[in-house]
Design brief:
Shape of chain A: globular
Number of helices of chain B: 0
Radius of gyration of chain B: 13 Å
Number of strands of chain B: 11
Strand content of chain A: 35-45%
Helix content of chain A: under 10%
Oligomer: heterodimer
Strand content of chain B: over 45%
Structural class of chain A: mainly beta
Largest interface: A-B, 24 and 26 residues
Number of helices of chain A: 0
Helix content of chain B: under 10%
Distance between the termini of chain B: 36 Å
Largest sheet of chain A: 6 strands, mixed
Shape of chain B: globular
Order of helices and strands of chain A: EEEEEEEEEEE
């Protein structure tokens, strides 16, 4: 069975500070990892996926298979980054259908 | 505009009164899924569908039914709602190329 753990329910930082939202997973096969973001009163949106290796809104995430982690990072947080962030995992051969989410981390960026 | 549309956005109902939450997508996606979001528990998958007439249980299917008669629609049915089904529900769709799910705006359901 796959599991995704986000150890921090709340992360509060000041504007301009670096941000790291932690995500650890357990899965015996090859996973595909995603980060989703949910701004206040809005739907979940895909932020980035590890396969594309892209940077979105200044965020990056690297899959570390040795540590089974997929932490989300941004060097300088902005107030508009305040949102709920979910890490999610899908078995690589399952085409994203069995998407398992972590419990989420609420990021608050203070002015 | 490519989107997943859920209705209604808000619903308050009484225990035992059957209800249906509709979900429709216009992206010709094969995969569709229902999640519920609860504080401290994140999102948990209720049911998913890999194509028309193909549905399967997710992690928390008890008390829910779904159907997939057409590719674009994936309604969630609560035959006899109970207060523990009070939650925020999201429908999502995806294509097999694993570009990630597109989510609907959510339906906030309260069962009293």
């Amino acid at each position: 069975a796959q599991r995704v753990t986000q150890p921090e329910k709340l992360l509060s930082v000041f504007k301009g500070a670096p941000v790291e939202l932690k995500c650890n997973y357990s899965y015996s096969g090859s996973p595909e990892l995603f980060w989703y973001v949910q701004y206040s009163r809005q739907r979940l949106q895909l932020l980035l996926r590890h396969i594309s290796r892209e940077s979105i809104k200044g965020f990056t995430a690297d899959l570390n298979k040795g540590e089974t982690s997929f932490h989300l990072k941004k060097p300088f947080a902005q107030e508009e980054d305040s949102a709920m962030y979910y890490c999610a995992l899908s078995p690589y051969n399952n085409a994203g259908n069995m998407l398992t989410f972590g419990g989420g981390t609420r990021l608050m960026v203070k002015p | 505009e490519a989107q997943v549309t859920q209705n209604p956005r808000y619903l308050i109902t009484v225990t035992g009164k059957k209800l249906t939450v509709t979900c429709s997508q216009n992206m010709n996606h094969e995969y569709m899924s229902w999640y519920r979001q609860d504080p401290g528990l994140g999102l948990r998958q209720i049911y998913y569908s890999m194509n028309v007439e193909v549905t399967d249980k997710g992690d928390v299917p008890e008390g829910y039914k779904v159907s997939r008669k057409e590719k674009r629609n994936f309604p969630l049915i609560l035959e006899s709602p109970s207060p523990n089904q009070t939650s925020l529900y999201f429908c999502a769709s995806s294509s097999p190329d694993r570009h990630g799910y597109t989510f609907g705006s959510g339906t906030r359901l309260t069962v009293v």
